[in-house]
Every structure is written in C-alpha cells, then in structure tokens.
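Recall the central idea of this unit: under ordinary conditions, the amino acid sequence of a chain determines the structure it adopts. In this exercise we apply that idea directly, starting from the sequence alone.
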Amino acid sequence: DKDIEELTGVDKIEILFLNMDDYVEDIRTLILSGRDKEELRTDMANLVMPLTLFELAELFIYLGKRTFLK
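Accordingly, the structure predicted from this sequence is:
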C-alpha cells in the first residue's frame, strides 16, 4: 500500500476520479459558506493547489458535465 503522494500515473488518476464528488462537495460548501470574494478565492486556491494541470482539467470537465449535461 502506498500513500497518495507516492502514487503516479493511472493509479493516481483513479484516486482522483474516486474523490471527484468530494472536490465538488468541498467547492459547494465554500460557495455556500457566505465568505467574501477574497476569502473564497483564497480557500478555492488552497483546495485545488495540490492538483496537477491534468487533474484540474479533469475536475473542470467533471463539473462541466454535471452542470451542462443534466
């Protein structure tokens, strides 16, 4: 068993897909929290900072499909 930091390639991508709903719920919670725009920006940046560009793209695709293809 490896820690998530040790995972690479397909293994790490599979973990990301499993946790996609968690990211969406965290984003939803932040949006609904009533924070001001500056706090919201900072908290969102901290949430997605550990993600790679590929993972960010996957998150945007996932969010887009949930939003626009209902």
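The chain has one domain: 4-68.
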